[in-house]
Amino acid sequence: MALFAALTLVGSSIDTVDTLLEVDPDTGAASVIADTADSLNGLAFSPDGRLYGTRLSASNLVEIDLDDGSFDIILGFGGTGLAFDASGTLWGLGYGA
């Protein structure tokens, strides 16, 4: 089983870097799936194996294609955390009023 991570680096001395990574838990080796992960956060797998995340830059919930890192917008969602429960219900940690 692989692990997935979204990396966003922002700083005054570097350009913003957004990367979606697949990490081998046995070796720690990371492979880049997409160079532009668009400020992904809150990654969670659904019970059927689909990967979801939030886009901080656009406040969206997205379904992510693990082959190329592309995504489909599911709905507007201003949040940072996602989790599926045993019944397959998606829970999100939102922010705002």
Task: Describe the protein in words.
The chain is an all-beta fold. It has no helices and nine strands. A hairpin with a 2-residue loop joins strand 1 (3-11) and strand 2 (14-23). It is globular and about 35 Å long. The model has no long low-confidence stretch (mean pLDDT 80).
Notable traits:
97 residues, mainly beta
Q: Which SSEs are present, and which pair or pack?
A:
Layout: E1 3-11, E2 14-23, E3 30-34, E4 40-45, E5 51-55, E6 60-64, E7 71-76, E8 79-84, E9 90-94
Antiparallel strand pairs: 1-2, 2-3, 4-5, 5-6, 6-7, 8-9
SS summary, helix count: 0
Strand order of the largest sheet: 4-5-6-7
pLDDT averaged residue by residue: 80
The structure class reads mainly beta
Biggest sheet architecture = 4 strands, antiparallel
Approximate strand percentage: over 45%
Instruction: Please tally the β strands and state the result.
Output: 9
Spatial shape: globular
Explain briefly what this protein structure is.
Helices cover 0% and strands 59% of the residues. It has 97 residues and is mainly beta. The strands form 3 sheets. The chain has a 4-stranded antiparallel β-sheet, with no helix packed on it. It has a 3-stranded antiparallel β-sheet with strand order 1-2-3, with no helix packed on it.
